[in-house]
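Here is the promised in-class demo. Please do not try to memorize the tokens; focus on the logic of going from shape to residues.
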């Protein structure tokens, strides 16, 4: 009998789902595996497939010590299928089936809806690996390079997690969907990834840090809501993925924080007090704070678009079916059905932005987006503490939720970061103050020079306060073997 806390390494695919006694699914995954490796070699980190990377691999799913660290060549990483332990007598936490036993098999009536949600989640995982595949070449340190690759292999594992569910529970159409996940490509004309933000490029390391802070956090919120699913295998999969996701957001938060810190230190050393003295600051080889704010504006708003329309029948149906819950559903004190509840949703009425109460069921997306905004605000506050400590006068802010939006009620209007409605002409005249321009991008790109000496960091980013796995400052996180 398999102990579901420990991981079996006796099959090609490490797992804690008893794959060696589930021949059908094991065969299906073994058939999918070569295509995956092919995808990884072709679309994964370019130029570093032969290097030895100090990576963590899951050896168990209990919160303490689930990971072991060792040098691994990325194509030999032990990607596996890992589910959080089954909670005994778990119940469906929301919707019309609330209180009934959680489903261990796919309920027929919700099959299509479930498959769609799993495919959309699955599609984001390889997409971010594709978006980040060129970054290794300009890594500002071996520490950062290692973190990039850790995020990449774990996104690869998240793809495995969704592909397992497709093969195990969705038969032939699940297999086709699993193949399509390797066929679509970020930014492709013919077969793009399914969601907008996952077709954008990640051209530099500040973009990478912003992406892992803001877009991986959207991933966290989606996983949180799927972790509440009445379909228990999906819930368990997502609960384990969330433990990995935490590291991705750590990489983002500390990455942006270290860029900010280096900028402020360089300004102090040069005696520059004014954060808008941009040319002089850039001459120091660091990224000025207003440009960092612009990058924040861009990545935060692209991520807001991932939450979909404020008012959504699909989201209402998924909640009502018990397929998707709210953020921390089981901790919310209400009937979990939302039959008579309301929720305030933003609307643009007669040239004004207002919040009006609508049926809470239809506002599930808006609520998750609000929870996301609260969650994202935490790190921004900590970035401001870094700035404050250096004595520079500047404050990072999350822009208004209507700024630079493509999806939902704000998609049709132009709004500034403070929430004021603008005419198209006003927007065109001022958007370069708020969003990165080509020149900003070119400047950041000009700083992207590799620094691969152990313990050394590029001049635009401060070293981390502690190493990964408590390693000392000059630890060689990646042993380079360039192809
Ligand atoms: Fe992921
Ligand atoms: Fe992630």
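The designed amino acids, position by position:
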């Amino acid at each position: 009998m398999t102990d579901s806390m420990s991981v079996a390494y006796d099959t090609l695919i490490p797992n804690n789902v008893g794959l060696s006694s589930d021949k059908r699914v094991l065969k299906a995954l073994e058939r999918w595996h070569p295509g995956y490796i092919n995808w990884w070699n072709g679309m994964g980190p370019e130029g570093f497939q032969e290097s030895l990377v100090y990576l963590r691999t899951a050896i168990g799913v209990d919160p303490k010590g689930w990971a072991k660290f060792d040098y691994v060549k990325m194509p030999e990483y032990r990607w596996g299928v890992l589910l959080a332990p089954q909670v005994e007598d778990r119940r469906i936490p929301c919707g019309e089936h609330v209180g009934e036993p959680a489903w261990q098999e796919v309920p027929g009536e919700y099959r299509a809806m479930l498959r769609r949600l799993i495919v959309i989640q699955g599609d984001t995982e390889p997409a971010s690996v594709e978006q980040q595949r060129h970054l290794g070449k300009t890594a500002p340190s071996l520490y950062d390079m290692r973190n990039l690759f850790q995020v990449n292999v774990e996104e690869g594992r998240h793809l495995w997690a969704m592909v397992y569910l497709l093969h195990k529970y969705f038969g032939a159409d699940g297999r086709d969907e699993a193949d399509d996940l390797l066929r679509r490509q970020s930014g492709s004309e013919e077969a793009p990834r399914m969601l907008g933000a996952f077709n954008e490029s990640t051209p530099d390391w500040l973009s990478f840090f912003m992406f892992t802070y803001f877009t991986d956090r959207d991933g966290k919120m989606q996983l949180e809501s799927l972790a509440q699913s009445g379909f228990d295998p999906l819930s368990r999969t997502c609960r384990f993925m969330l433990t990995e996701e935490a590291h991705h957001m750590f990489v983002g938060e500390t990455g942006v924080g270290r860029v900010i810190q280096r900028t402020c230190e360089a300004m102090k050393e040069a005696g520059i007090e004014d954060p808008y003295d941009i040319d002089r600051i850039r001459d120091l080889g660091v990224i000025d704070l207003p440009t960092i704010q612009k990058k924040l504006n861009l990545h935060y708003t692209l991520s807001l678009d991932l939450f979909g329309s404020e008012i959504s029948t699909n989201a209402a149906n998924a909640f009502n079916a018990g397929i998707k819950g709210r953020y921390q559903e089981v901790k919310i004190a209400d009937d979990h059905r939302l039959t008579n509840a309301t929720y305030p949703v933003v609307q643009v009425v007669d040239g004004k932005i207002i919040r009006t109460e609508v049926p809470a069921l239809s506002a599930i997306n808006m609520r998750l987006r609000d929870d996301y905004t609260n969650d994202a605000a935490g790190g921004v506050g900590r970035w401001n503490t870094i700035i404050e400590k250096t004595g520079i006068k500047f404050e990072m802010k999350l822009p208004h939720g209507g700024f630079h939006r493509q999806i939902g009620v704000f998609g049709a209007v132009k709004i500034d970061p403070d929430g004021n409605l603008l005419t198209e002409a006003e927007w065109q005249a001022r958007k370069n103050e708020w969003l990165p321009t080509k020149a900003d991008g070119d400047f950041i790109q000009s700083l992207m020079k590799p620094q691969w000496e152990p313990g050394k960091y590029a001049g635009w980013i401060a070293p981390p306060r502690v190493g990964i796995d408590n390693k000392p400052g000059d630890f060689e996180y990646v042993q380079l073997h360039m192809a």
